[in-house]
Amino acid sequence: FWLRTVAANPALCRAATMAAFTVVPGRLTAKSPGVSVPHQVAFFDAPTSGASASPASTRFLQLGASSVALAALSGRSRSRHSRAARRAQPASLEEKRFPVLSRRDAPVGTFPKMPESVHPGVVSGKALVDLLNHAKENGYAIPAVNCVSSSSINACIEAARKMDAPIMIQFSAGGAQFYAGKGLDNTEFHAAIAGAVSGAYHVRAVAEQYGVPVILHTDHCAKNLLPWFDGLLEADERYFELHGEPLFSSHMLDLSEEPLEENIEICVKYLERMAKINCGLEMELGITGGEEDGVNNEDANPEDLYSKPEEIFQVYDALSKIPNGFFTVAAAFGNVHGVYQPGNVKLEPTILDKAQKYISEKIGAAEGSKPVSFVFHGGSGSDLKDIREAVDYGVVKMNIDTDTQWAFWDGMNEYQKKNKDYLQAQIGNPEGAEKPNKKYYDPRMSLRSGEEFMAERLVKCMEDLKCIDRL
After folding, report:
1. Helices (H) and strands (E) in the chain, counts
2. Is 330 in contact with 255 (CB distance < 8 Å)?
3. Burial letters for 260-279: b for 16+ Cβ neighbours within 10 Å, e otherwise?
4. I need a surface site. Which of 11, 201, 377, 412 has the fewest CB within 10 A?
5. Does 410 qualify as catalytic in the annotation?
6. How many other C-beta atoms can be found within 10 angstroms of the C-beta atom of residue 200?
7. Are 332 and 288 in contact (CB under 8 A)?
8. DSSP 8-state class, residue 357
9. Which helix (H) or strand (E) holds 215?
10. Which helix (H) or strand (E) holds 411?
């Protein structure tokens, strides 16, 4: 804030400084008693009389002196308005949820068809586990949508409210960077981290208001993206310290291109850390074909598109030993990102059934058990028969990105075509050469059309996943 103030109006800052302090070479002396000057000011390079200051030193002096001056003036204002200041203080650390919106300690509301722990808003910890187990036990899966803006987030939650269903909102590294702004420097994934955190706070601010449970997740994180993952976990841990839960419900590690042993080893290390803050892990086993968000597996070895029951058991055996650890498995059964002509994608959901039976036998579970919670990647364009079969075999989450991207664009495009004659200039349309067109080119109009089309496509997805009227 002070940097922006100095850059925008240095004259104002100098005036504020002179009003509050006596400026002498190398130091500031407060004119008002009881106002202290931080010792850092002494380090700024103040020129002596008659000497010329470098631009850098002048800027530093302005910044230091102005900041202190404005802070002092602000302090005098606070002393006169202490009651108002107390009301403006941040929420106390004891407030566990939604400190910006309210001062209550816990979420309000339950659902008649859901476990008691599941509530409106972002779910994590026990509520997350109970929700996904409820999906597996009751034969439905939750759509997971990659979001890149507040508009796509709102469309997802709107569809969930309309269909009385849970929803999962997730961010990829590229999508998170876009959310923060492509003009922001992404060195060491700073923009991608900031964008995902910003999106998470948006979801937390609005999800409860829609009255539906939302799982907040991040998508594919390959080995080269681990610094992004680390940054998100640090945000989770800080949020946990303040609110008793992680910022995100869960995260995904996609180490499917690494050797299986290394994949499992890294997942174990991270899940041990995540379990301490009640954060879930999704891991990928085998490769999802096609291309998404800059990751191209169109030339992947066909054998890598199909996981083996023995490999899935290795993952289950290692991760299930971690105390308080919760995980899902994105096992490959021919999944492909994107939409292709019929016949080009050969899904084999029976791989999931074989894995459930194999693992049940290994751990001595009852016949018909589904010990693994599976994730279906590349759901866009999939045949309804394959979707329903996969859900029957323990899929609790299906990713849908390509179809929702198209739906959003389709909505904006349809709006443009419908109102084309009103979108050619700021003034002048079929109703008259002097008629203004502002209400047509207002970005909210085309964006809202995109939201409506996207929400409509998600309704169809929820029907396919039998995720309707579940609350």
Report:
1. 16, 16
2. no
3. beebbebbbebbeebbebbb
4. 11
5. no
6. 26
7. yes
8. H
9. strand 213-218
10. helix 402-418
Q: What CA–CA distance (Å, rounded) separates 362 from 354?
A: 12
Does the structure show a pLDDT above 60 at 12? no
Radius of gyration of the chain from its Cα atoms, rounded to whole angstroms? 27
Cβ atoms 145, 168 nearer than 8 A: yes
Q: What is the pLDDT of residues 102-156, one digit of tens each?
A: 555 566 788 999 999 999 999 999 999 999 999 999 999 999 999 999 999 999 9
**In the block, which residue shows the tokens 């996609």?**
254
Count of other CB atoms within 10 angstroms of residue 15? 13
**What is d(CA 349, CA 393) in angstroms, rounded to the nearest whole number?**
8
Instruction: Give dist(CA 441, CA 407) in Å, integer.
Output: 20
Distances (CA, A) of 160 to 165, 166, 170: 5, 6, 15
Tokens (6 digits) for 193: 């981290």
User: Do 457 and 410 form a contact (C-beta atoms < 8 A)?
Assistant: no
What does pTM read for this prediction?
Answer: 0.76
CA distance 326 to 236: 16
* Cβ atoms < 10 Å from Cβ of 384: 10
- At residue 143, the 3 state secondary structure works out as strand
Residue of 366, 273, 262, 259 lying closest to 322 (CA atoms): 273
Q: pLDDT tens across 179-205, in order?
A: 999 999 999 999 999 999 999 999 999
